[in-house]
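Protein modeling request. Please complete all fields; requests missing the sequence field cannot be processed.
Requester role: graduate student
Desired output: 3D structure, token encoding
Chains: 1
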Amino acid sequence: MQQIFDAAFPPGRLNYWKSALTGHLADEVIEASVEYARKLPSPFTVILFAELHGAYSRVGKTETAYFHRDLQYDAIVLSGWTDPADTQRNIGWTRELFAAWEPHLARAAYVNDLGDEGEDRARSAYGGNYARLVALKTKYDPTNLFRMNQNIRPTV
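Delivered output (156 residues):
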């Protein structure tokens, strides 16, 4: 499963994505998706909604680092392109669509779907588990050696 999308991201292809979780797909999210799908900036760009259910939702919110098991959908916009001259157009399109979605989505994310979006977005991925994870990071990695991901900073 970890390699299922590898073919969609070959070496050399540029990409940018945004995503957030939601408990339901609001009409406004669907309408914005249809509107923006009519003007995709690249043939390598997709809008998708991953439905999360089954065993995933039967694990308690505090049993793992992942907190948002009650949110059923991951709304994702993945932009891909090959010409660096198209970078701003593709990133702009992605940000505009996400901005249209954002008021209708939870302030929650799946950490592996985040890019370099700042500490608040990383924090949103862990929800109510964040404080516990900071305590663990402080205990086991007080120097923040493992920081090349969506970082949880140890308490200084």
